[in-house]
Amino acid sequence: MTLALTVLGCDGSYAGPGGACSGYLVESGGTSLWLDAGPGTLANLQRHLDLDTLDGVVLTHAHPDHWVDVLPYHNVVRYLRPRTGVTVLSPPEVRRLAAEVNGHIGPAFDWTEVHDGSSAQVGTLRLTFSRTDHPPETLAVRIEDATGASLGYSADTGPGWSLSELGPGLDLALCEASLAPEAERRVQHLTAAQAGASARAASAHHLVITHLQPGVDPGRARADASEAFGLPVDVAAVGQRYEVRE
Predict the structure, then answer these.
(1) Domain 2-245 CATH superfamily
(2) Domains of the chain: which residue ranges?
């Protein structure tokens, strides 16, 4: 069994030319999970699976670069390829906004609100949530498969939260690194160096930085993160796939 992460989108705040905002496909043991649904990620998701086989969606917070593609996906499962009971997990504000925009969220989605400390099971995947240093309510998530392989996703956060809050020994850490070094602490996001330090404190085995804002130099971000982490670091790119085996 393999726990796999595929990058559907990784641009921070808005998508650069040809890019997409935050979104990832997590798969293991026949379970598939769409982790954040930023603009552009629904189109990319279909490169990797049949939408009829998607088991669940996790939306980490209400900023639109992390969730709005769930609205056209709702059209798919409500009207075009009807299904019921698709698992959706999010903080309450995301559900409220989705209902306000759509006018109705019906039986196509089995929507559960989650908070700091919540846990959930989607197929073979076990999820636990931790509130980060970012407004509005934003939830990082640790995902483990049946073998114990683990990945941690920071969602969006400032330096007041650390990947260590997701527990020790993450096999794969996916951490936001939105900011150029000169923008450190101006807003509640991380620089690449801060992301590297967070992953090191959590004893992560492999770090992938993501959510770089357009214009941030990925080469410099990789170097800064690697120096702070103490090991080579990857920069997320659309279509890249990472595998964790136990």
Answers:
(1) Ribonuclease Z/Hydroxyacylglutathione hydrolase-like (3.60.15.10)
(2) 2-245
